[in-house]
Design goal:
The protein is mainly α. Helix content is 64%, strand content 4%. It is built from 10 helices and 2 strands; from the N terminus they run H-H-H-H-H-E-E-H-H-H-H-H. It starts with a helix and ends with a helix.
Length: 208
């Protein structure tokens, strides 16, 4: 995710505008970082407050204070160039924080989807089995999604197959899913007849 943001495959400007308040930034901070990112993408890494101030309606003194604050908070990193010892900047920590936000959002969305699937499956089972699932049965259902990571479609298919075969047990569905997930046993290559005879001679021929 970090590289996708840094390389602008995920647009930095749009993402920062959507997320700046979560990072405890205000609109001016966001515009400063967007401007620096634009310079960075064009290969202009030399740090200059004046070059940023030219495109903003903010006094240079105020802008300087803002940038110092962003440096202290880790959003901007300053270092000396190895070539001419001039001060250059990077926004790696900003990219990293945005990446964390995206990954966290995706994880929460995934968790929410899994929770909804578990609720749906519990309702389906209780409706079809005509009973309230026990705590152990609820734990088995949750394990299908969280620990075993079975596909929702496969779980539905296993439930329908179980009901069609007139079984009414969560444990039966659990065994059915586990059986389907097991890789097939490797085929055993048959031993040719001549080789059996060779082995027979090696084992029993010595005793003669």
């Amino acid at each position: 995710m970090f590289n996708l943001i840094k390389n602008n495959i995920i647009p930095f400007d749009r993402l920062l505008i959507e997320k700046y308040y979560v990072l405890d930034l205000d609109e001016i901070d966001a515009i400063i970082l967007i401007r620096l990112n634009d310079l960075y993408r064009r290969g202009e890494r030399l740090f200059s407050v004046r070059s940023i101030a030219a495109s903003m309606k903010v006094a240079e003194t105020e802008l300087g204070k803002r940038i110092v604050d962003l440096v202290k908070r880790g959003f901007i990193a300053l270092e000396l160039s190895g070539k001419d010892a001039k001060e250059v900047f990077n926004l790696d920590e900003t990219y990293r924080r945005l990446a964390y936000l995206l990954e966290d959002s995706e994880a929460k969305a995934n968790d929410a989807e899994i929770n909804e699937q578990i609720k749906y499956t519990v309702r389906l089972l209780e409706s079809e089995l005509k009973k309230t699932l026990s705590p152990i049965e609820l734990e088995i259902v949750a394990r299908w999604y969280i620990e075993k990571k079975y596909e929702h479609r496969k779980i539905e298919e296993a439930i329908l197959r179980t009901l069609k075969n007139k079984y009414r047990s969560v444990n039966y569905i659990d065994r059915l899913l586990a059986k389907e997930e097991k890789p097939p046993a490797p085929a055993v290559k048959p031993v040719e007849g001549e080789r059996i005879q060779d082995l027979f001679q090696k084992v029993y021929g010595k005793g003669k």
